[in-house]
């Protein structure tokens, strides 16, 4: 059976499939953050900006510091991603390999913390640190995805993807690509939520690390042999 054309695009090689996997990761980490850290996102910064507004208004249950630290961490990660783009941007698989190596390390640190303590019972310091580090990892991923430039695959948000899906639904290829992105995010959130609720946040981080590690290894293998779609 032939693969969908957007997964076999000669302009991007296998990169669309890798971007879908990272979109799945974004759904997972936001599920982990919301369920294990409280009301804070680590990939979807739009939600954090709204939560900051709620906290400033004094709405009960919304803490200002975790959302602020998450936004700051995301920005720091995106700055780091920009530096990697300047250094390795001429080869997209090489850029992806290096960025995901750093992301894996950051998320592994979050896993260690989640393994040692129950995050919701670990106090505000543990929650804030994990939120900031995980957000930095996702900022790095998003900046990298921006350079990789597969249409509709920013990996961290689906608002514009949904807009394009509705506004240009008659374009079958684009609609299929956008639908796959939304589904990947949904499935990531579902899997992340099930793992946190049924087992614990550490199980969610293990699953995230498996996917990120798999994508990083794939990118490393792809970078070994120069191809036209690398640039």
Walk me through what this model shows.
The chain is mainly alpha-helical. It has a single domain (16-230), classed as Growth Hormone, Chain: A. 73% of the residues lie in helices and 0% in strands. The protein is built from eight helices and no strands. The chain has helices spanning 15-37, 45-56, 64-88, 92-116, 123-148, 159-167, 172-198, 201-222. Helix 2 (45-56) runs antiparallel to helix 3, helix 3 packs parallel to helix 5 and helix 6 runs antiparallel to helix 7. The longest helix has 27 residues, at 172-198. The radius of gyration is 17 Å and the shape is globular. The chain starts with 14 loop residues before the first helix and ends in a 9-residue tail after the last helix. The mean pLDDT is 91.
Query: What is the level-2 CATH architecture name?
Result: Up-down Bundle
Q: Helix content range of the residues, please? A: over 70%
Distance between the termini: 29 Å
As a whole number of angstroms, the C-alpha radius of gyration is 17 Å
Give the total of beta strands.
0
Structural class: mainly alpha
Q: Kindly report the average pLDDT value.
A: 91
Tell me the name of the CATH class.
Answer: Mainly Alpha
Number of domains: 1
CATH topology: Growth Hormone, Chain: A
* Major pleated sheet: none
- Helical stretch tally: 8
Series of H and E elements:
HHHHHHHH
Strand content: under 5%
Tell me, what's the shape?
globular
């Amino acid at each position: 059976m032939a693969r969908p054309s957007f997964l076999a695009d000669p302009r991007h090689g296998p990169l669309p499939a890798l971007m879908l996997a990272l979109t799945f990761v974004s759904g997972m980490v936001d599920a982990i953050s919301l369920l294990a850290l409280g009301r804070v996102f680590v990939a979807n910064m739009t939600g954090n900006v709204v939560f900051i507004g709620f906290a400033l208004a004094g709405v009960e249950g919304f803490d200002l510091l975790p959302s602020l630290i998450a936004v700051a961490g995301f920005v720091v990660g995106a700055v780091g991603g920009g530096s990697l783009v300047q250094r390795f941007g001429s080869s997209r698989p090489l850029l992806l390999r290096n960025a995901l190596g750093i992301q894996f390390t950051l998320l592994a640190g979050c896993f260690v913390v989640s393994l040692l303590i129950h995050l919701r019972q670990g106090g505000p310091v543990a929650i804030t640190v994990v939120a900031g580090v995980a957000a930095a990892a996702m900022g790095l991923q998003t900046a990298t995805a921006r350079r990789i430039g597969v249409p509709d695959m920013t990996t961290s948000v689906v608002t514009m993807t949904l807009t394009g899906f509705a506004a240009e639904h008659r374009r079958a290829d684009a609609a299929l690509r956008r639908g796959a992105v939304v589904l990947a995010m949904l499935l990531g959130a579902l899997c992340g939520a099930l793992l946190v609720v049924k087992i614990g946040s550490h199980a969610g981080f293990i699953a995230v690390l498996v996917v990120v590690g798999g994508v990083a290894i794939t990118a490393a293998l792809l970078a070994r042999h120069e191809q036209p779609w690398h640039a």
